[in-house]
Amino acid sequence: MSLSTLRLRVPLIVAPMAGGPSSPQLVAATCESGALGFLGAAYLSPSQIIHQSEDIRRLTEKPFGINLFCPNPAFDPHTFPKEIIQRGKERLEPFLREMGAATPNLDPPFDEDFYRQFDAVLEARPAVLSFVFGALPEDCSRRAREKGILLIGKATCMEEVDKLSQSGGIDAVVLQGVEAGGHRGIFDHKAPDPNIKTHDLLNQCVSSPQYKDLYKIAAGGIMSAEDIRRALESGADAVQMGTAFLACEEAGTSAPYKRALLASEERKTRITRAYSGRLARGLIRPFMDEMEKEEILPFPIQNSLTKPLRAACLKNDTDKYMSLSGLGRRET
Ligand SMILES: Cc1cc2nc3c(=O)[nH]c(=O)nc-3n(C[C@H](O)[C@H](O)[C@H](O)COP(=O)(O)O)c2cc1C
């Protein structure tokens, strides 16, 4: 099967954006316009996945996708040293106090159970499941295929494309360049960034004969019609855009976040582990430097520790310590 079976009128995917931006309204509006909308479900509970899928279906009859973060079998938060977690919390305390935030949870699990989320996705039965941070476990690929769900993996280098096509297989690949806003999809969370630009990665994949028939989706730094045209002319079958849709009326992006994105033409960004423990590109804030003075806890622990801080920012209507994932006009 291929993504071409979806017969998109517009070769565009509005990126799954976990944490609120990809609201059911944004997903439905995208699909109604002829593109493909995605629910970013990584931080949703199984019942939220079911309910938000029902909300989407109330708004559109068109096919849509759901996105999950792959589990990381190499990392067990249950055996992670408690004193290091405690130290991570102590480092956040001045910021938590300033914002009047709740105390972070210090005990595992620090995120939703992937396999329960996956079961909910099968029940919701979207047209497409996309995933990031690795290959889907093989039994999950098989079960999704049995339900007729198309699979899209995400790669930041050609080695990852190879791994995706060798595992349970994929129907399409998102080729994510270093310009991309949000999390870098790198498989190994400790590895340095392969640092390949969107067009270079696309060109590498297009010129690999074994991937001649693979449906290729370019992502990262695509903001305008001209950018889209260039990617399609270079051999992409479609593009995936995140940042460009963050400030849409339908997006669930919080008010302080939208204001920060729209505040300056320049929008300087950089990549940091400060908010979640995984590399992600976002608007530059002093909090990034502050956190990077010491080793940052791995995902999902850091993500869980900063959660109350981010929630308190929302309550106080400030973006000060929010993770402002997105792309800048000038990358640093
Ligand atoms: C706020 C935000 C949240 C994101 N969340 C996810 C996610 O949950 N899953 C995912 O696969 N990609 C996520 N991404 C990355 C996008 O899939 C895509 O790679 C990226 O947005 C492309 O770069 P652009 O922002 O320059 O368009 C996110 C991006 C942003 C900006």
UniProtKB/TrEMBL annotation:
**Keyword vocabulary terms for this entry:** Flavoprotein, FMN, Monooxygenase, Oxidoreductase
One Pfam family it belongs to: NMO
Task: State the superkingdom.
Answer: Eukaryota
Record's Gene3D superfamilies? Aldolase class I
Metal-binding found in the keyword field: no
CDD domains tied to this protein? NPD_like
Q: Where are the transmembrane segments?
A: none
Q: Does the keyword Oxidoreductase apply?
A: yes
Which GO terms fall under molecular function for this chain's record? Answer: nitronate monooxygenase activity
Q: Needs which cofactor?
A: FMN
| Similarity comment text for this entry | Belongs to the nitronate monooxygenase family. NMO class I subfamily.
Name of the protein in its database record = Putative oxidoreductase
Organism field: Planoprotostelium fungivorum
Q: Where is the organism placed in the taxonomic lineage, from the top?
A: Eukaryota, Amoebozoa, Evosea, Variosea, Cavosteliida
